[in-house]
Task: structure prediction
Amino acid sequence: MKPIKPPTIRPGQRRPYVKGTQAQIDQRRGFVARMLDAGATKTEIHSAVRQRFNVEWRQCDRYVDFAATAKNTRLAHAHAQTSSQIPLNEYYRELIKMYQDTAKR
Result:
């Protein structure tokens, strides 16, 4: 068995960094998307993500950007391809459910 490599602290870093698995990243993105959907402010999202996942604010900003982009582009694209008149918020809620399901696997 390979020995576990300790996290590296690079110049300018205050804390060691270990990259999350794809399942962890999906869970974090889903959490941020649900908070955005609930109307939380960026400051509230930062504090909640830091407390729950122990992630720095810069990484949290990346998750917020991803969730906002997913809401604005992917959902609009999916809405344009469907023939029904379902609101974009319904598609967004479905995306959130998908993230919840993948995080449980």
